[in-house]
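Deliverable D4.2, example record:
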Amino acid sequence: MKILVIEDELKTAQYLQKGLGENGYAVETCQDGALGLALAASGTFDLIILDVQLPHCDGWTILGALRQNDRKTPVLFLTGRDSVQDRVKGLELGADDYLIKPFAFSELLARTRSLLRRGQVAPLPDVLRIADIEIDPMHQRVKRAGIRLSLTQQEFALLALLARHCGEILSRTMIAEQIWNMNYDSDTNVVDVAIRRLRKKVDDPFDRRLIRSVRGVGYVLEE
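Output generated by the structure prediction step:
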C-alpha cells in the first residue's frame, strides 16, 4: 500500500513516514501544496494524508481539485484546524476522515487501516485464544497450556495488544504509544525491556516460543 503525506512541517512528515513505514506502508512525503497536488493527481497512491495549511496550494484546493477530476483516492485530513466549520468543510469537500493535531499515532494508524480496509475487521471474541494461550480481557487473566500466568497490569496490556494483532508486526512506536501513551524514542529500550520481561513468563517456561522479534521493526505474536 502506498501513502502520500502532504505536510509542510518537516518533523511531522518524517514522524509519519517512519511510523507508517514501520507498519509496512510505502510512504512518500511532500511539503509543498502545488507539488502535492501533482503527485496526488497521478492516481498512484492508495491513501493521501493531507494538511490544510500548505505553501502555494492549500489542502482545501488540493482535495477540491481531486474530487472535481473524479479522483476517488481516500483522503485523511491531518490538521490543526479544529473548528466544527473546518471539519464540516473538509468532509463536504469529499474527505474520508478528519483528524486534528496533536494526534496519537495509534489513532492515525487505526484510521489509516480503516480507510484502506473499508472496515472489514471481524469483532474480537470475549476470550482471545492464540495457540495454547488463553487471554481473558474482562478479568485480566492469562493461561498457557492450562497454567495460570501471573502478569503485571502492564505485561497483560502488552500481551493483549500483541494478541489482538496476532500475526501482525507491531512497531516499537505503536507499542510505546499504546502501552505508555508516549512517543517512542530510539535512544530508549523501554519496549525491549518490557518484551523481555513478558517473554520470561509467557515463552521461557514452555517449549514453543510465540513472541518473535523482527529486526529493526518491532515484535509479533504468532501461532
